[in-house]
Design brief:
3 helices, 29% helix, globular, three-stranded antiparallel β-sheet, alpha+beta, binds zinc ion
Length: 87
């Protein structure tokens, strides 16, 4: 999580944003702005909102999409020798 986020959105705010996001055919997401006047395109590497363009990192839209679309589970690490991973 980036320390550059000045106002950390709450889970409720992220869930509200995520509930309005629309998945596009190319895998990106279209997220309406909070006043509904426009929509931002969120991809795996960025977002078209001014917040992301000025500060980079994770704007609330990217956080919200992460909220509805969690990363794939980690690969199973400790098959076989249970101590192998600690070397
Ligand atoms: Zn954004």
């Amino acid at each position: 999580m980036s320390a550059r986020i000045s106002t950390q959105p709450t889970d409720e705010q992220l869930a509200a944003i995520a509930s309005t996001a629309v998945r596009q055919a190319d895998g990106s997401w279209l997220v309406p702005s909070s006043d509904g006047s426009k929509a931002y395109r969120v991809t795996g590497t960025g977002c078209s909102c001014p917040d992301f363009e000025h500060r980079g990192g994770f704007c609330k839209h990217r956080l919200a999409i992460g909220f509805v679309c969690p990363p794939a589970p980690l690969p199973k690490k400790f098959e076989g020798d249970p101590f192998q991973g600690f070397a």
